[in-house]
């Protein structure tokens, strides 16, 4: 535990206006923050340990760096995806997430998961307003498809040399609060990149031309995170006799029906899916917020927020499960190539294309969801969760080393996984 002795008391008149903060080194910034917040020597020592991310690299990845936040990386076993065994690195702070994937995958190991993608296409949007003849403007822009292709492809010769580039143009006339809006979609194959920067550059490059063709004023030029041209899909059939019989199967199907019908339930259902998905996205240095935004927007595409997975009973009585969601992930770009942990995790996964990575991630989301629904429909989520969570509670109570297991065991056996109980149990152990 960090010492509670502050190096200095927080300044009475604290100001967050710190001139030139961004120009200082991480250590200089940390000293300023320590003085501001009254951090102790041990807290400062802890924050200044960058772990396995070089301070220079961390300082280049984001602004105003003072430290890093380490998250455990666990490996999900038992996954067989499209006939190939895969070990899945998952970066998460939440207990039970990795175990859930291992358990689900073990129950379907022989058949495994089957996956596919709809493509690698990203969408960039260019917004034009104040267009007097929006429907005619739409046709004028569509007529410039080849000019748009030339403009976009010229932005990224590397991407084009790899087989990517502009694939299509769509123009929508939106009826907005501010009147008709002409929105051009650039549909771009971004190959093994997530592609945000790539398509944003293209959107900015074509903007003055779209302003001219439309006769309006262009404001926003940026990708859409609703990457519905980049869907990843996974399916698996859990045999009813391998998962505990028809009652368990029917409980899982009913849990899906609940999520399908009710946004309150669907939010939690999909959160569980994202437990698995985000963990692989983070482990591979991809953008968790982009994936979250895309997933939830896709879940609401009908106008009603619903489940990202589906469960059905096959003709032979087994449980057929499937997932489909946008997964704009890359092997290059952003932190994927720069972060050494991301590089090592990609090597563990053996994914050599962004497509394969997306397919693996979809399978992990499905596995995660199966485990959660099975637990919820049978013993409840707390039984499995609490065994791991009890260890966290024991540590929160101050247990170290062997005390952690000992305290956690008492909490679980007594069905009272609570901080106050952990403190009492720890005190008892220490008294001997
Ligand atoms: P990037 O621009 O860093 O790299 C992509 C570029 O790498 C391509 O344009 C291409 O020139 C090159 N490249 C080399 N090898 C390639 C290959 N095999 N396939 C494809 N391209 C290859 O990254 P990006 O993927 O364009 O953007 C991702 C980053 O953008 C992430 O860090 C994300 O967080 C950030 N971002 C996201 C949003 C959003 O989601 N709304 C907005 C802005 C930025």
What class, by secondary structure content? alpha+beta
Strand order of the largest sheet: 3-8-10-9
Q: Just name the CATH architecture of the largest domain.
A: Alpha-Beta Complex
Series of H and E elements: HHHEEHEEHHHEEHEEHHHEEHHHHH
Sequence stretches where pLDDT stays below 50 over 5 or more residues: none
Q: Might you state the CATH topology name of the largest domain?
A: 3-hydroxy-3-methylglutaryl-coenzyme A Reductase, Chain A, domain 2
Shape: globular
CATH classification class of the largest domain = Alpha Beta
Strand content: 15-25%
**Number of E-type strands:** 10
Overall pLDDT score: 95
What attributes does this structure have?
oxidoreductase; EC 1.1.1.88; 4-stranded antiparallel beta sheet; HMG_CoA_Rdtase_bac-typ; alpha+beta; 10 strands; globular; 4 domains; 432 residues; 3-hydroxy-3-methylglutaryl-coenzyme A Reductase, Chain A, domain 2; single chain; Alpha-Beta Plaits; NAD
Describe this structure as you would to a colleague.
The chain is α+β, with helices and mostly antiparallel strands. It has 4 domains: 11-61, no CATH class; 73-118 and 230-378, 3-hydroxy-3-methylglutaryl-coenzyme A Reductase, Chain A, domain 2 (Alpha-Beta Complex), CATH 3.90.770; 121-224, Alpha-Beta Plaits (2-Layer Sandwich), CATH 3.30.70; 384-431, no CATH class. It contains 16 helices and 10 strands. The strands form 3 sheets. Strands 3-8-10-9 form a 4-stranded antiparallel beta sheet. The chain has a 4-stranded antiparallel beta sheet with strand order 5-6-4-7. Helix 9 crosses helix 13 (354-377). The chain is globular, with a radius of gyration of 26 Å. The mean pLDDT is 95. The structure holds nicotinamide-adenine-dinucleotide. Nicotinamide-adenine-dinucleotide binds next to helix 7 and helix 8. The site of nicotinamide-adenine-dinucleotide has 23 residues, from helix 7 and helix 8.
């Amino acid at each position: 535990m960090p010492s509670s002795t502050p190096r200095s008391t927080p300044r009475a008149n604290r100001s967050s206006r710190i001139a030139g903060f961004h120009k200082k080194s991480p250590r200089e910034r940390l000293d300023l923050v320590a003085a501001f917040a009254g951090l102790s020597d041990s807290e400062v020592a802890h924050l200044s340990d960058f772990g396995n991310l070089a301070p220079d690299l961390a300082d280049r990845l984001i602004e105003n760096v003072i430290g890093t936040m380490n998250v455990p990386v666990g490996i999900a076993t038992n996954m067989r995806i499209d006939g190939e065994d895969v070990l899945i690195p998952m970066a998460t702070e939440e207990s039970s997430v990795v175990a859930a994937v291992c358990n689900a995958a073990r129950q379907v190991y022989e058949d495994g998961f089957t996956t596919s993608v709809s493509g690698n296409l990203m969408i960039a949007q260019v917004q034009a307003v104040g267009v007097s003849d929006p429907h005619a403007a739409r046709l004028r822009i569509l007529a410039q498809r080849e000019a748009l292709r030339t403009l976009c492809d010229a932005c990224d010769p590397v991407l084009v040399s790899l087989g990517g580039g502009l694939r299509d143009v769509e123009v929508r006339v939106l009826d907005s609060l501010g009147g008709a809006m002409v929105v051009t979609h650039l549909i771009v194959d971004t190959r093994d990149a997530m592609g945000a920067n790539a398509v944003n550059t293209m959107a900015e490059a074509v903007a003055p031309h779209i302003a001219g063709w439309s006769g309006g004023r262009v404001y926003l030029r940026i990708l859409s995170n609703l990457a519905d041209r980049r869907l990843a899909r996974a399916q698996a059939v859990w045999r009813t006799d391998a998962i505990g019989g028809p009652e368990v199967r029917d409980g899982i199907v009913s849990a899906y029906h609940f999520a399908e019908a009710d946004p309150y339930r669907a939010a939690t259902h999909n959160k569980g899916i994202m437990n698995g998905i985000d963990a692989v996205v983070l482990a591979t240095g991809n953008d968790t917020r982009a994936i979250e935004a895309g997933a939830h927007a896709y879940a609401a595409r009908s106008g009603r927020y619903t489940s990202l997975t589906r469960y059905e009973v096959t003709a032979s009585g087994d449980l057929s499960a499937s997932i489909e969601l946008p997964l704009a992930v890359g092997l290059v770009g952003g932190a994927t190539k720069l972060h050494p942990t991301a590089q090592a995790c990609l090597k563990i996964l053996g994914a050599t294309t962004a497509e394969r990575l997306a397919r693996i991630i979809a399978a992990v989301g499905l596995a995660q969801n199966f485990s959660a629904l099975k637990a919820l429909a049978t013993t409840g989520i707390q039984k499995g969760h609490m065994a791991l969570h009890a260890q966290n509670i024991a540590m929160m109570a101050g247990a170290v080393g062997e005390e952690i297991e000992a305290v956690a065991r008492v909490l679980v056996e007594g069905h009272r996984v609570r901080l106050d109980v952990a403190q009492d149990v720890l005190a008892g152990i220490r008294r001997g």
